[in-house]
Amino acid sequence: MVSMRRSLVAVVALVVVTPLALAACGGDEDKPTPAAWVGTSPSVAPSGGVPESGVAESGQTGGTSAVSLTVTPATGKKNVPVSAEIGFKVSGGKVTTVALKDASGKAVAGALRDDGSAWVPSKPLKTSKKYDATVTAVDSAGVTKTASTSFTTMGKPGKRTGTGLYLFDDRTYGVAMPVVVEFSPGIKKKDRAAVQKRMFVKTSPEQPGAWSWTASGTQAYYRAPNYWKTGTELSVRIAVGGHPTGGGRYGDQDRGATAKIGRSLVMKVDNKTKKMTVVQDGKTLRTLPVSLGKKSTPSSSGTMVIMEKKAATVFDTTAELGPDEGYRTEIEYAQRITWSGQYVHSAPWSVGSQGRRNVSHGCVNVSPSNARWLFDKTLIGDPITVRGTEDKLDAGNGWTAWDMSWKEFIKGSALPVPAELAAQEGA
């Protein structure tokens, strides 16, 4: 197997993914490109938090209000990040409206966090600009109280953290598609909680989930305890544009997408029988003979996810292994399942071995006819589980969010997971 290599792919608005040469059963030079932010949307918050405290001017109407209300950022504060939220502490009533305007009086769109702790603008504020915010709360008698503040945002940051989102608008994905966010450089542990608070996911129908970070902090996955339900709509906003990410860096931009989950299709590969079972919506469609990695280059055992599909490509390991050990081969119906270069693909040269013995460099070999049939059936995000090989899948070698129990997965969250959600039985 070729050693795993990772590099952040530059992301720009309205990305178009173009085919590139692949490293066969090893290497990740052309991993799929993350999607870019495609618009603005109200924030959907899995958790809340009040920004730094500060008391603002206040007023009331209709009599003496029982409400106590403070608002942040503090009045007159300068160099505020453009990711600023309008935070508030309220007692004796509840907040009913939040209004934020720029220096020209133009209203800024936004939404309350689910826990009501703050109001989040629907996109980053502009740099070096003054903003005015007014928060209105009401007590049980209907008497209102307002608090106002004004602040000025910071200039353009000198250092940025690159970000990527592996989700595209209006696409349909498999039931195991995690929300995958990438950071370059990675986010250190002490900074992850603040960043995670700005990573919003909404599902319809509702299926609460959690975030989990890789050890390096270069990726974070979001999933529910079990595979998504067919027909689920995922609405994602990674609202880190201009947000502090640690080390004097700030997120490069907001990213987001709305996508759907399709039918359930699950692939299970058993090394003992050398067969793949393909199950759609609970019904076995076909059992395919396979050849897995030979002992010197074993396939990884674990639950993986299809990350990329190419009907025709080239596997080329000569640059990495040299002309004597490397090879360059044209491949059809290649479906990537790890960053280190394991694929499910057509292998006409190993048909005689499929179902009998392992001869590949780590990939899952199937016949040309079976490869095309499978390629036409699958979606990005469909799960494939391989069992019984000599090698175990490494965490982070692909979208490995499902290669751990739910209890293990939530240990990677930088924020506390609600007890009811943590207690659920997951895959």
TrEMBL record:
<dbReference type="GO" id="GO:0005576">
    <property type="term" value="C:extracellular region"/>
</dbReference>
<dbReference type="GO" id="GO:0008360">
    <property type="term" value="P:regulation of cell shape"/>
</dbReference>
<keyword id="KW-0961">Cell wall biogenesis/degradation</keyword>
<feature type="domain" description="L,D-TPase catalytic">
    <location>
        <begin position="265"/>
        <end position="387"/>
    </location>
</feature>
<keyword id="KW-0133">Cell shape</keyword>
<feature type="active site" description="Nucleophile">
    <location>
        <position position="363"/>
    </location>
</feature>
<dbReference type="InterPro" id="IPR005490">
    <property type="entry name" value="LD_TPept_cat_dom"/>
</dbReference>
<keyword id="KW-0012">Acyltransferase</keyword>
<dbReference type="Pfam" id="PF17964">
    <property type="entry name" value="Big_10"/>
</dbReference>
<dbReference type="GO" id="GO:0016746">
    <property type="term" value="F:acyltransferase activity"/>
</dbReference>
<comment type="pathway">
    <text>Glycan biosynthesis.</text>
</comment>
<keyword id="KW-0732">Signal</keyword>
<comment type="pathway">
    <text>Cell wall biogenesis; peptidoglycan biosynthesis.</text>
</comment>
<keyword id="KW-0564">Palmitate</keyword>
<keyword id="KW-0808">Transferase</keyword>
<feature type="region of interest" description="Disordered">
    <location>
        <begin position="31"/>
        <end position="67"/>
    </location>
</feature>
<feature type="signal peptide">
    <location>
        <begin position="1"/>
        <end position="23"/>
    </location>
</feature>
<keyword id="KW-1003">Cell membrane</keyword>
<keyword id="KW-0449">Lipoprotein</keyword>
<keyword id="KW-0472">Membrane</keyword>
<dbReference type="InterPro" id="IPR050979">
    <property type="entry name" value="LD-transpeptidase"/>
</dbReference>
<dbReference type="GO" id="GO:0071555">
    <property type="term" value="P:cell wall organization"/>
</dbReference>
<dbReference type="Pfam" id="PF03734">
    <property type="entry name" value="YkuD"/>
</dbReference>
<protein>
    <recommendedName>
        <fullName>L,D-TPase catalytic domain-containing protein</fullName>
    </recommendedName>
</protein>
<keyword id="KW-0573">Peptidoglycan synthesis</keyword>
<dbReference type="GO" id="GO:0018104">
    <property type="term" value="P:peptidoglycan-protein cross-linking"/>
</dbReference>
<dbReference type="InterPro" id="IPR041280">
    <property type="entry name" value="Big_10"/>
</dbReference>
<dbReference type="InterPro" id="IPR038063">
    <property type="entry name" value="Transpep_catalytic_dom"/>
</dbReference>
<dbReference type="GO" id="GO:0071972">
    <property type="term" value="F:peptidoglycan L,D-transpeptidase activity"/>
</dbReference>
<feature type="active site" description="Proton donor/acceptor">
    <location>
        <position position="345"/>
    </location>
</feature>
